[in-house]
Amino acid sequence: MVSWRHARRLVVVGYLVLLVGWPMSLVVQATFADGLDTLARTLGDPAVRSALGLTVVVAASAVVVNTVFGVGMSLLLVRTEFRGKRVLSALLDLPLSVSPVVVGLAIVLAYGQDGWFGPALEDAGFRVVFALPGIVLATAFVSLPLVIREVVPVLTEIGTDEEQAARSLGAGAWPTFWRITLPAIKWAVVYGVVLTMARSLGEFGAVKIVSGNLEGATQTATLLVEQRYQDFDQGAAYATAFLLAAVSVACIVVISFLRPEEKP
Amino acid sequence: MTAVAAPARNRRRPSTPARVGLGVGVLWFSVLALLPLVAVVVETSSAGWAGFLATITDAQTAAALRLTVTQALGVTAVNVVMGTLIAWVLVRDPFPGRRAVEVLIDIPFALPTIVAGLVLLSLYGPGSPLGIDVAATEAAVTLALLFVTLPFVVRTVQPVLAELDADVEQAAASLGASPLTILRRIVAPALAPAVAAGAALSFARALSEYGALVLLSGNLPMRTEVASVRILSYLESGDQTSAAAVATLLLAVSLLAIVALELIGRAAVRRG
């Protein structure tokens, strides 16, 4: 049996190294092939700085929106009864299985210049597609369920005993939420936020369609990676990709340390 | 709302603030996701049934759809085997360095897809240190999809496997059951729903992938062009209706897959 065990382990580790580990290490190598020069030159490029800045703004907006919505929606799904709850719950998972390209198309059809609401919004002086709001909408769409998926199971598991005790002792709804519920779901919210952040920083397909991809204005970091690679500016492509990869790997490592030994 | 519906135990009927919250939440969700998705379906229907059929039977589009579905099926099959095996090794034969492996499995989930494509290109593209160049071939599509769908089966099977009591398997073995019987009668039925759920996620993701393929697959019409790329090329040529038709078909197929695999998972539990 020992040899079987070793064979299994070898297959698993080999597969993961060939598929993930080795390729990842090559990007790090390509970034640092000539020391810190490539990274420094890339970060000195105004277009790169603008793209990174836009990505941070967009991801932060998506995280705030999805966290408020996600925590509120989770509370409603777990703590109240209403008609159509199961349908709503299933629909909330939908964004995870919709292609980013379809998300982009959907937003253009609804809010674009020839879309359902685009002309009316434009008359009101509010441009969605090919502008910041569209990029935020697309990003919030693709990362929508991540907070809910983390918070709902925890809310279900902790039950309502402590909340009811607090309420029966005269605490209002708001203090009960801040003092009892929120501390109990704190880590689930943190995981949800970190996952949402990683997903938002990396959104590509949906943003490519709704942003217009204008360098220095509506070009996000992922769009810049594609453009620079295709323009044979591989140094900048690899360096920006490295920065994005570093943030997402940091997100995973943070989660794996925050969530120590729940799995035996 | 009827007044007779009895509230479940420990749950209150929505208070006024909860109802307001629900209203605001559903409104935002509709603005963000539901209305735009409805717009896609409505745009598709504007060309009528004949227009829809004409779009999806167009030679280039049909080829893209065929490639997408076969690749998604193939990749999902690999994930069912490899994902279950990886979960098994992580849960049943822990080894030093397990934590690093856990991080490797989660990387595809968090890594920006365009970066994923670039990362794979550095080992399997032109200038590969292994001398393997799959760029702009069907193998590149498979590779990219294997990368982005890696975590799904592992992450759904792992917790179920951890809950599964090894004692039962030992008891069966001590009563003379062969390893194959144990696998078939005890382990497989317990894991089937989780494997099915992971497979559904993996299939839906493979159908819809775009970012990881852009740089790697070359997007050659009739050969390595997948459905998402086809949607984008329709959109870039200003044909929103055809783009919407392909998008609607993709949405329908991934919903169908999720429902079907859910049913398979349930049936497997009943048989076990």
TrEMBL record, chain A:
Gene3D superfamilies attached to this UniProt entry: MetI-like
InterPro entries cross-referenced by the UniProt entry: MetI-like (IPR000515), MetI-like_sf (IPR035906), Sulph_transpt2 (IPR005667)
Membrane topology designation: Multi-pass membrane protein
Primary subcellular site in the record, as a coarse category: membrane
Superkingdom in the source lineage: Bacteria
ABC transmembrane type-1 domain: residues covered: 52-255
UniProt protein name: Sulfate transport system permease protein
Organism from which the protein derives: Flavimobilis marinus
Lineage: Bacteria, Bacillati, Actinomycetota, Actinomycetes, Micrococcales
TrEMBL record, chain B:
Keywords recorded for this protein, A-Z: Membrane, Sulfate transport, Transmembrane, Transmembrane helix, Transport
Domain of life: Bacteria
Topology in the lipid bilayer: Multi-pass membrane protein
Entry's localization field: Cell membrane; Membrane
GO cellular component: plasma membrane
Segments crossing the lipid bilayer: 20-42, 72-91, 103-124, 130-154, 186-207, 243-264
Family membership: Belongs to the binding-protein-dependent transport system permease family. CysTW subfamily.
Subunit: The complex is composed of two ATP-binding proteins (CysA), two transmembrane proteins (CysT and CysW) and a solute-binding protein (CysP).
Protein name: Sulfate transport system permease protein CysT
Organism name: Flavimobilis marinus
